[in-house]
Every structure is written in C-alpha cells, then in structure tokens.
Write a structure and sequence with these properties.
Length: 191
C-alpha cells in the first residue's frame, strides 16, 4: 500500500481549538508525505452520551453510524486530545465508546481492530497535555489499535500554534512531521 488512508480528528469541539489546529498540521504533513487524509471535526457528529439502555431503546444514532463508516474506511488515525483534569476529554471518550459498539454485520471494535494511531496533544501549559495522552494510549491499545510509540505534546500552545501551517517550536514541529511519516511507514509495513 503506497497511499494509506488516514483519518485526523481532535477530541475537542471548541471553536478555534488548538488541538484541532495541531491535528490539522499533522494531517497536512501526512498528506504531503503521500497519504490520503480526511480531517474530521467531532462537532459535526453530535452523539448522545453513550448508555446501553439508551442504545437499546433508540438504536444507533445516524451520527454514530456516519462516523463509524468514516473510521472503518481508513487505515489509521491521527488523534489530538486536549487534557481535561489529567485525562482525555469526555467528547473523545464518548466517541470511542460509541465507535466500539457492534452495528449491522460489524463486530464490536470493527473501527479499531488492526488500525494504527498517532496521538498528540496541545495545551497552554508547559506539559502540553501529556497526562491525558497516557489514558488515550491505554484505551486505544485495549481495544485493538496499535498506537505509535512516539507521541507529541505541544506545550505553550498559544505561542506554538498560531496557525495551521506548522508548530512554531522547531523541535516540536519536527516531532509532528516525524509522527506523520511514521504512521504512513507503519501502515505500509502492516497492510
């Protein structure tokens, strides 16, 4: 496979999200390296709070089905997650919970099994959302996703993420570029 399909999204639905900006930068680098990239915004997929009782009573929401199909049609993911209280965001966890559900002929975890993920975070603070990435890594790994060993945490995002072109800090920008190249390399090696 020479042109892997990568889905890029953030665990934030805020207007002007620094994490959406970060994942867009990574997605652009992946595209420049030869991947076919789709950038999604979870704000476009308003999912109810996951509850098995709600799902039994109401079925699978259209927004969930649409995002499941989008995830299944890609070989890997670039995911940026803000850190909320030392963990990932509720919106991202809710999305993962919905995506893990079986639907139609698909088994549980069809969106995640055999997929490759590169994870990153941005934060106004110095740690760059690092603590939340540990939780995201553990969750994704437990549901069958191969998470790249290197992750990117962009601290001082107000200074480092001023546009969607690059990260201002050269070392961090190189780390984002490296992650974009690495996800393509791993997908090509495994598929």
């Amino acid at each position: 496979m020479t042109n892997p399909k990568i889905l890029a999204f953030s665990g934030s639905i805020r207007n002007g999200s620094i994490n959406q900006r970060l994942v867009t930068i990574a997605a652009n680098y992946a595209q420049q390296t030869g991947a076919e990239v789709t950038i999604a915004n979870l704000a476009d997929y308003q999912m109810p709070l996951f509850c098995p009782d709600w799902e039994t009573a109401n079925g699978m929401p259209d927004e969930v089905i649409a995002f499941k199909e989008l995830m299944k049609s890609h070989n890997g993911f670039l995911i940026a997650s803000p850190e909320y209280n030392g963990s990932l965001t509720g919106i991202l966890k809710n999305t993962i919970d919905w995506m893990s559900r079986p639907y139609s002929d698909d088994p549980r975890m069809a969106c995640f099994n055999g997929k490759i993920a590169g994870i990153m975070a941005a934060s106004p603070g110095g740690l760059g959302g690092l603590r939340g990435l540990h939780h995201l890594r553990a969750i994704l790994a437990s549901i069958g996703t191969l998470v790249l060993p290197n992750q990117v945490a962009v601290g001082n995002a107000g200074t480092n993420l001023v546009d969607e072109e690059s990260v201002k800090d050269e070392g961090l920008n190189n780390a984002v570029q490296s992650q974009a190249k690495e996800i393509i390399r791993v997908i090509n090696a495994l598929h």
